[in-house]
Amino acid sequence: MKLNFLSLFFCLLVVITSKAYGVNIKRNISLDSNFSEKLSEECIKEQENAENTECMEFITLSNYKQVCSNYKSEKCQKFYNDPLSYFPLCKNDPIIKELYQPIGMETLQHMYDLECQKDEDGNLCPMSLSFITSSPSHDVINDTCKSKLCTDSIIEICKKFNIEQFSYYENLPNTSGNFTYEELNAFKNIAKMLESDKCKALHVTNDTSNAINIKSSNILLITLTLLLLLFIY
User: What are the UniProt keywords, alphabetically (predicted)?
Assistant: First the structure.
């Protein structure tokens, strides 16, 4: 499925207003659903006909190998580094300039990084799989901890997210409101759980007697998954 950045951003903010797993996440940030109407017809067409759509595809279980390869390609890296050059007709449009800020492109790549991580056997990391399928659970933390490679890579990526990236989304011309405390700290808290001694104790092992279990908050995992949807889909 190929979507341009406006569609990705719109879909994301629609999803995060909904329920997940029977738990309501109170959201204080919302989207002006009519923002695309503020673009000229010329800009809308330029977005729809852009040649860079392969650099912002929706990841699914059926296409993740191709998408994960695409976003690392030289072509996509050039796009992320200078997105406005791909929209010569509309690069000075205020909405386009706001959406395609460098910090937005940086966040997009972080999200792809989270969804494309693999373990020592070349399989998707449990947390990456959870993000792709939008199915958070308590087990995903423990399952991720079983692979040191997955644990280390997810920690590194989670630490890349910062308050400036949240502010970027809050301050876009087509959004209103603020992120909650839980949302602002979701990535940090996931990193802390994966850095814990209990998580480290789960590395490597084929020992079925190892009964250590890391308790994680359903709210935290759901919040994190919804944030991922916000930043990328």
Answer: Signal
The number of C-alpha atoms within 13 Å of 32 and in the hemisphere containing its C-beta is 14
Cα end-to-end span (Å), the chain: 11
Calpha distance 184→75 (Å, rounded): 32
Q: Give the torsion sign (CA, 135, 141, 147, 152).
A: positive
C-alpha Rg value of the chain to the nearest Å: 18
Residue range of the domain that includes 151: 5-232
Contact of 194 with 141, CB cutoff 8 Å: yes
Q: Is the dihedral of CA 27, 39, 9, 12 positive or negative?
A: positive
pLDDT digits (tens, 9 = 90+) for 102-160: 988 888 888 889 889 999 999 999 989 988 887 767 688 889 999 999 999 999 999 99
